[in-house]
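Try it yourself: sequence plus iron/sulfur cluster, in.
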Amino acid sequence: MAKLVNKPKMTFGEQVYMPAIVGGVGLSLRKFFKNTFSKRENGDIATISYPEEKRLYPERFRGVHRLTHRTDGSPRCVACLCCSTACPAQCIHIEPGEYAADDPRAGYERFPKVFVIDELRCIFCGYCVEACPCDAIRMDTGLHMPPSTNRDHFLYDKETLMSIPGADGSYQSGNTRHEPGDESYPGLTREHGH
Ligand code: SF4
Ligand code: SF4
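Structure, out:
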């Protein structure tokens, strides 16, 4: 059975809501004048004039992706598809290619013919970076995507991803790669096994 609840009694002033409206408008005006005329240097207001002024991001901030280079300028990526498999947003598209027969890497590893990340679909989880066995993809650029009204501008292809340096200005990674032909190279091939 329904229970009858009596409406609370309100004064005339409460029923017309005028005191609350005047109070709200007064608060907004106070904040407006304070934000407009206060000195930011005094720490009175928290807003900054972005993009001229930027806040310092934490060291672990995930910026837009980049593909790291080898010392010869080619991508470190071996098109293993680990990153695209790990990506929960399914926003990485890779088409692997085989090296030419006379290349020492032929038959041993592949390279990305096509590598595209849809930065609009990306949720910046960083799983792709964690999944990569080659340190070939990083999110250490410290950059936001430039704003655009065209969706296509957010499709970052291989050339774009390789043209972005890390926040330290480097296109490579600090992790050494043992290339075929190097003295440090362990000499493994698909034929000779691991
Ligand atoms: S950061 Fe996450 S969502 Fe974005 S490409 Fe990498 S795995 Fe996918
Ligand atoms: S970026 Fe790394 S995980 Fe992704 S395909 Fe290239 S080597 Fe594999």
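One thing you can check immediately is this: The chain has a mean pLDDT of 89.
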